[in-house]
Amino acid sequence: MSPPPIVHHPAYAAPLPAGHRFPMGKFAALAALLRARGLLLERNLVEPEPAEPDALALAHDRAWVEAVLAARVDPAAERRLGLPVSPAVALRARAASGGTLAAARLALEHGLALNSAGGSHHAQRSGGAGFCVFNDLAVASLVLLAEGRVRRLLILDLDVHQGDGSAAILEDEPRVTTVSVHCRCNWPARKRQSSLDLALDPGTGDRAYLELLAGLLPGLLRRSAPDLVLYDAGVDPHARDRLGRLALSDRGLAERDRLVLEACRAAAVPVACVIGGGYEEDLRALAERHAILFEVAADLSRRPRPRRPAGSCPGS
Ligand SMILES: [Zn+2]
After folding, report:
1. What is the pLDDT of residue 2?
2. Is residue 1 part of a domain?
3. What total of structural domains would you count in the chain?
4. What's 10's DSSP letter?
5. Is the pLDDT reported for residue 315 higher than 90?
6. What is the per-residue pLDDT across 141-150, written as a single tens digit (0 to 9) for each?
7. Averaged pLDDT, 267-277
8. How many angstroms does the Cα of residue 271 sit away from the middle of ligand 1?
9. Order of strands across the sheet with 112-115?
10. Could you tell me if residue 34 is inside a domain?
11. How many CB atoms lie within 10 A of CB 142?
12. Distance 307 CA to ligand 1 centre (A)
């Protein structure tokens, strides 16, 4: 079996001022690690087209798109974003959204694909927030819906922070089900209402987390009946993350990813994965943590795909 397609762009790693608290180095570190482990090869590497302004404007105000692309963002908006918007940061944001869209298209074709960036779930329609410039999950969803490529999507957001931007941008879009499983005590203070929010207590560990997820997924996939799942596999629920407050282990994250990918496979629903948040100081350790998703995906791809469940129709 071929390894699943991995979408990666060199622009994912944009230079930031020295000492900036966003771990930009993790994108290059992750790509290097995936190459070293034979998970990212010439034959499964896909370099995405950066998202076009018209695509970004499906999820964002045109004024925000234009300000970012011109690298002319006012200081108050930059403070909310938490990043200085240089031309390189602007290109990075376009590439990450283009990357999630490319992964979504590849998932529709192959069943499973991964973006080595993405999960900018705090970005709002009118501007960025929490290191998130453009909401790649909302952009990809709205482009595919506009093209008629899908009729319904599920955004499954397991980053430790609430997917407030996705919830707000898509609140009037009934064709997209937004689900956020997060720690209730984390930023953002003001949560927005997703289709389903599961707010966990700080310190929640592997066992409780995985039981909840295992109980949630089959019914969720049945009820929302998506043509595609966008899975935000943020690793900040890990016990050692600087910003998360949950207590998952490496093994717990692997089991989480396996549960999601296997549930999608059992329901014969394609899934496109994005890496989401992760804020460990040690970049090598952080890259290893993000690589768990890619290991699990590669392992799953080695197994034959089941047939669609009896009684269902292709594209239904
Ligand atoms: Zn996060």
Report:
1. 77
2. no
3. 1
4. G
5. no
6. 999 999 999 9
7. 98
8. 20
9. 45-46, 6-7, 112-115, 271-274, 228-232, 153-157, 176-183, 196-200
10. no
11. 24
12. 35
